[in-house]
Each structure stands twice: as C-alpha cells, then as structure tokens.
Write a structure and sequence with these properties.
Blueprint (H helix, E strand, L loop, with lengths): L16 E3 L8 E3 L1 H12 L13 E2 L5 E5 L2 H4 L12 H6 L21 H11 L3 E5 L2 H4 L10 H16 L3 E7 L5 H4 L9 H16 L5 E6 L1 H11 L13 H28 L2 E7 L2 E4 L5 H24 L4 H13 L12 H7 L6 E4 L3 E6 L8 H5 L1 E4 L16 H14 L5 E5 L13 H19 L5 E7 L18 E3 L8 E3 L1 H12 L1 E2 L20 E3 L2 E3 L1 H18 L4 H6 L10
Parallel strand pairs: 4-5, 4-14, 5-6, 6-7, 7-8, 8-10, 9-11, 10-13, 13-14
Antiparallel strand pairs: 1-2, 3-17, 11-12, 15-16, 18-19
The protein binds ligand GBH.
Length: about 600
C-alpha cells in the first residue's frame, strides 16, 4: 500500500492500494494494479487467454481468397497514354507532404508490368484479386465527355489476363485518386460530384461490368474524409474547416455510393449478376480501463464513427443515432443552435437504405479508448470525444498506428453481425507492415496472417458470422501514402533500387498460399496437409529460445518476453522476432 517514502514523504505512492492520508481512518482502495496482480497470482503467470488460442477448421466452400492493391499505390505511369492528373499526383508533388519526397510517378510500374503482377497472384494462388481503377486514367477530366481509350484498354486487358489465370476481379471504383479537375471545382465538397460519380460508375459498369462480379464503390470513406479533409495528411490536404467539412464531404460520399448502387441495380444487375457494396475501415476498440463505464462508451464511439457513420445510413437507414447525438451535443456546446451534421431528407433516407450487397471491411488493429471533454471546441475530434492509445504489450509492427491485436477482429466481426443484421462480410483488407532493412523471411507477417485469419475462422465457426471472403493487404510493397515507400505491406518485396522493380516473394507468400490451399486450418489429425509443412507457431510445437515447447507455452513465453522487452526498449518487431526463431516442423 502507499506509505511513507523516507525523504519523499508521501509524495509517491508505491502501493497496490491507494491510502487516503487525509482521512484519519486511512482507508485503502485497490488500484487497477492490485486487480492485475491478483490475476497474475491466481493464474500463476500469464497463460494464453482463451480467445488467443487457435482452432482447427475450414472456411465455407467457395470462400473468396484474395489480395489487394490500389491504383495510385502501384500503377505509376502517371502521365502515360493520356492519363489525367489526380489529387494524389498533386499532393505528392507538393513539398513536405510525403516522407522522403516519394511519389507514385513510377510506384511499382504496374501499368507496364501486368504480367509480373499476374505471376505474383498465381504464386499466391488467390481466387480473387482486388485492385482499383484510376478515375483520371479512364476519364482524364473526371467527366464522360472525354474517354481515354488507352487507360480503359489497360483495365480491359488486366481483366482478361486475370480471368485467363482463373482469378476473379474485385474492383474498387474509388481508392482516393480523384481527378484533379474535379477537385478544382470543389471535389467531394461540391454536391455535383454525386452526378459525376454516378456517370463514372455507369461508364465502368457498362464497359467492364461483363467481366466483373464484385464491385466496391468507395474504399474507406472515413480515411477520405478525416485524413483528407480534417487532418490534411492525405490528398486533397484540407484542414481549415475540421468542424464542418468532414460532414459535408461524408454526406456527398454516402449519396454518391447510393447512386452508383442504384445505377447497377437498375441497369446492369439483371444482365451482369454482380454485387456492389462499400468498404469501410474500422479498428476494434476496448475500454482503456475496463472498470469504467465511460471508457466503454468511448470505445463504442470509436467504432461508431469508423463504421456507423457510413454503414448505418446504408444498412439500417439514416445516420446512426450515436453519431447524431455526438455531433449535436458538441455543436450545442459551441453555442450553435443546430447540429453540424447535415440531415438526409426522408426520400434520401429511403433511397440510401439497402444499397448494399455485402459488408466490405478493412481491418488492421485494435485500440484502447477513453473519453475526453473538449469543452466548446468545434472540431471533428471533439465530436468523437475520445482519445485512443495502444497497450504496450501488443506487438509492434512497421507502422506506429498498427499493433498486432488479432482478438479484435473476431470481436469486430461479431459486432457487425449483431449490429447490421448478419450481412455477408468480405474482409477487403487486412495486413501488416515492416520498415527498415529488408528481410525476406517475414516471420512477423506469417504470424499476423496466421493469428488474424484464425480469429476470422472463430468468428465463422463459433460465432456464426457470415464471412464469405478474406483479402490480404497487400500483394506488393507499394506507396504507403503519406509515409511513401518506408512502410512495406507487401507479400512481395519490390526492389526499388533496381529500375526493373522486380517482385520477390517473402516467406509469407507460401504461408498464405498454404492457408488458401487448405481453405483454413484443417486438423492435422485428419491427415497431413500443406499447412503442416509450414511454421505455425500457434498450432505446432515451436522452437522458442532453444527450447522445444508446446505452442501454448511458447506463446506465453513470447508474450512475457515481449512485455518485458517493450518496457526496456522501443525495439522494432524485427528485433523481437529475431529472438524466437520459428522452425519448420512436421506433424507425424
Ligand atoms: C488502408 O488504409 C488503405 O486502404 C490502403 O491503401 C493502405 O495502404 C493500407 O490500409 C495500410 O495503411 O501515418 O499515423 O497518419 C488504412 C488506414 C490510412 C491507417 C493511413 C494509417 C496513416 C496514419 N490507414 N493511416 S498516420
């Protein structure tokens, strides 16, 4: 308990219990650490929590196994064959916006290296490939008045090559590279964009639709809105109206999505028979302090702003009550008479509601949340009213914002099932990065995919979530937006010092490919299979610090070592994984 600390008197409390020295009764109150220590004693250490244990089993038949890229991140050829400029061309060419002055001028040169990309996909043995269309490559000024035939041919050829390789396309209409010409007239802020997006979608459905069964209208409206129009960290780099602009932009994105879905539904669905939806990104959030109700509410608000903002109008009708309440409350706190969140008309609510064919989810990590009262501050962040941090025992990766938290994916999937009436879900992105020296033995990525995909399997088998597909981000190391080429998410390494930009498989390629071949994690007891050849730290026995341990013990050792390590040094994941060489092992 807190006690007298010699020369420091009562200044510092070392206790598991707080002692109130102002109260003559000296009452003791257990701190969080007391509860924590109690659990350590009860468990006699740090056993692997139930929800981190792996299970055996397979996904449904015809499960979509995919890998993803996006046009600006891989294509290059920024001025070839009549392509128009996008807001990302302009943004990366603005000094100071991107790490190391990187641009997508060349990127992975996928515009000229289609065969290499197809070969990479074949090696992974994916059933699907998710890529996006560069709007200004096909419609240079954003309108259908002028079509750049060469750009359209590129995508035609890509679709033909994919289908010839027996890989089905998943096509994103908008992965952030808006034609600069449309930004010049206000971009997503100007509601005429709704008509432009509708025409663009119509044009793509008509020209590419016969070869495409899966469409995604928008990739991550949250990131477009908040990073592009609140923080200014992404193109178009706006941050001057963080109180109103995100809601105007968001309003137009939702309405644009709905119009594109209706065009497909009215004109193309009968003949083409595909699916059209939107992809939203969301972290999972846990309360920072599990003993505080406010922290649960903050965690809920995190997920609500990531998902509910977009998905509630589209899946349930109208803006989410929680988002409405948050923005209204903060608007009133700033002396406004009404909410800064625009309202949909009753006709719009009806028109938007139901414009989905599946739930597209991008997910990378979880966070811990707690509330913050911003007073009368008029800002998107104040509306959300939370701060997020990560737990320092969570494994680090090549990106500061991304900690390995596999448990969160299962919880998020279950949340989506319950909140949005059990829709079919496609995970349209999930993956991990590294930075620094190149090491093709990407043990951390194998571990990430193993743990996250196994949590998806639990969501399917144990929680009955209707999960129909999984997509690994990314096929290639590519332009990671604001941080340029410094953070590498690829299954394939792209050597940027070689002008040929060769793609080399990292170790995770054969691992992911084995999961695909096995359609999950079949029980080795039912006979040896491809995965049993691979290192699976969570299931098979592994070599941990020279000792042969059962997987659970090793994982416990791993967690404990990490907890200690991380306190001592802010080492990278690479340092840490070097400590536990995972060796291939065979069952039988
Ligand atoms: C997805 O965004 C994107 O769809 C994809 O294009 C991207 O490459 C991938 O994930 C990996 O990031 O540097 O601290 O300002 C996920 C959302 C957007 C989260 C960029 C991290 C940068 C945060 N990501 N963001 S920071």
């Amino acid at each position: 308990m807190d006690s007298f600390q010699f020369v420091f008197g009562y200044l510092f409390g070392f206790g598991l219990h707080h002692v109130d020295f102002n109260n003559p009764n000296r009452p003791r109150t257990p701190k969080f650490s007391a509860h924590f220590y109690y659990n350590v004693m009860r468990d006699n250490g740090f056993p692997l929590p139930e929800d981190e244990k792996m299970i055996y089993g397979e996904f449904k038949k015809d499960f979509i196994w995919s890998s993803a890229t996006a046009s600006y991140q891989i294509e290059g050829a920024w001025r070839e064959d009549g392509k128009g400029l996008s807001i990302w061309d302009k943004f990366t060419h603005t000094p100071g916006k991107i790490s190391e002055h990187d641009t997508g001028d060349v990127a992975c040169n996928s515009y000229n290296k289609m065969e290499d990309d197809i070969a990479a996909l074949k090696k992974v043995k994916v059933s699907h490939y998710r890529f996006s269309i560069s709007w200004p490559r096909v419609l240079p000024d954003g309108t259908t008045k002028y079509v750049n035939q060469a750009g359209l041919n590129y995508y035609q050829k890509l679709l033909d090559s994919l289908i010839a390789a027996n890989i089905q396309p998943q096509v994103t209409l908008y992965h952030w590279d808006l034609p600069q010409a449309l930004q010049d007239v206000g971009g997503w802020e100007n509601e005429t964009i709704i008509e432009r997006f509708k025409e663009y979608a119509d044009f793509l459905f008509q020209n590419l639709g016969p070869k495409v069964k899966l469409w995604i209208t928008f990739n991550e409206p949250f990131i477009i809105t908040v990073l592009g129009h609140v923080q200014g960290a992404h193109a178009p780099g706006l941050n001057d109206r963080p109180d109103t602009l995100p809601y105007i932009v968001g309003h137009n994105i939702i309405r644009s999505h709905a119009e594109a879905w209706h065009v497909y539904n009215d004109k193309y669905r009968a003949s083409q028979g595909g699916l059209v939806s939107i992809t939203v990104n969301s972290d999972w959030a846990e309360p920072r302090n599990p003993y505080k109700q406010e922290d649960y509410e903050a965690a809920r608000n995190v997920v609500e702003f990531y998902l509910g903002w977009w998905v509630h109008p589209i899946f349930n009708g109208d803006y989410s009550p929680l988002v409405k309440k948050s923005v209204l409350k903060q608007s009133l706190a700033g002396g406004l008479t009404k909410s800064r969140l625009p309202e949909f008309t009753p006709e719009e609510i009806k028109r938007i509601n139901g414009t989905y064919d599946y739930f597209g989810l991008n997910h990378y990590c979880s966070v811990l949340a707690f509330p913050v009262d911003y007073g009368s501050f008029q800002h998107f962040e104040a509306d959300r009213g939370v701060v997020v941090i990560s737990d320092r025992t969570w494994l680090e990766t090549g990106s500061v914002w991304l900690r390995m938290t596999p448990f969160g994916l299962r919880r998020l999937l279950k949340f989506i099932k319950e909140e949005y009436r059990n829709p079919p879900i496609i995970i349209t992105e999930n993956g991990v990065s590294e930075n620094g020296p190149v090491d093709l033995n990407d043990v951390h990525r194998k571990y990430y995919y193993e743990q996250y995909i196994n949590q998806v399997l639990k969501a399917y088998l144990l929680d009955d979530v209707n999960i129909i597909g999984y997509t690994a981000w990314s096929l290639l190391d590519n332009l990671e937006w604001g941080v340029g080429y410094t953070e590498r998410f690829g299954l394939f390494y792209v050597n940027r010092t070689d002008p040929d930009l060769p793609r080399t498989p990292k170790a995770s390629v054969s691992y992911y490919s084995s999961i695909i071949s096995c359609n999950g994690f079949p029980d080795p007891a039912s006979g040896p299979h491809e995965l049993t050849k691979e290192a699976i730290p969570g299931i098979n026995n592994v070599n941990f610090l020279g000792m042969s341990l059962s997987s659970e013990d090793a994982a416990t050792g791993l967690n404990t070592t990490f907890a200690l390590l991380i306190v001592a040094l802010a080492g990278t994941i690479c340092v840490a994984v070097g400590l536990f060489p995972v060796e291939n092992c065979r069952v039988n």
